[in-house]
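Fold sample X.
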Amino acid sequence: MTCTLTEDDLEPCTHSGYAWRWSDPSYDVLPDHVLLSIHALRRGKARQCFQQSLLIDQWTRDDPAREIETGADENLVSEWLDGCGAGTEMVIASWSEDEAVYLPWAVFRNYWSSFCYPSTDDVTVWPSDGQWGLSFSHSGRFAWRARESGQAD
């Protein structure tokens, strides 16, 4: 379950159909340095990664190691995300065949509510090596799971 990315697969976050979520004062305005760290995936790569996100989402939801409802305090959810053990790696966040971004895990963790909208979004987040998966359901629940050492795709 890998999704290998190259510089040619990435565009500025302003090319994302969801850029308004991070730059419109009616929703959220992320700091400039944060926006520069978010890259939209070009449509062909977003489609390829979406197919993998469906597998990762299913795998994660089938037997999650950890779960949390996001109706809790945003800071509590951010602390829970800290426990997912993702460190400082880059991750892919995929909503659909047309929408995916590549960003630092820390940005997703700190601003998760700008990436996950309850009642409308299903988002799958994972590092390109597929060693763990995070699934957000439109019902407002995160599920997380990591691969065991030596576990194949």
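Fold sample Y, listed below.
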Amino acid sequence: MSGIGGHQSAVSKTDEWLTPKYIIDQLGPFDLDPCAPEERPWRTADRHYTFQDNGLLKEWDGYVWMNPPYGQQTEAWLNRISMHGNGIALVFARTETRMFFESVWGRAEAIFFIKGRLYFYNTKGERASANSGAPSCLIAYGSYAREKLKHCEIKGQYIEL
């Protein structure tokens, strides 16, 4: 498993890119982040599982924040949060993919398409010099998460499923 988000930059040679803090602040507080990096300049939840913990195998409870490793592993993480049924996941808005059809459409309660492309942060809290390179969305699993997305002040478009 890669670090949070699993976004890799050829320039920085890292795959640990953190969600902008304003997103966590808007949608939290969260009880658990099962995809947290070892080092983080801000808390994303009350409890964190890191790569060493393998959050896919741990018990989840409460309201979950998840910026999963991107790539082939993303689907397993989305399936897990879907089964948990109480949380928000941040992923690229690849709405046409098999992963989206199998793990989001028909399972999630809402999607929030973020306006523009996000700038992620490194583990020291410094913003990346380039944006993420693709559009991102927030996916709500469960009614509590749906309501948090519905009433957030993040710029973008909310769609209830």
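Sample Y note: The domain at 5-160 is CATH 3.40.50 (Rossmann fold).
Also: The longest strand covers residues 87-92.
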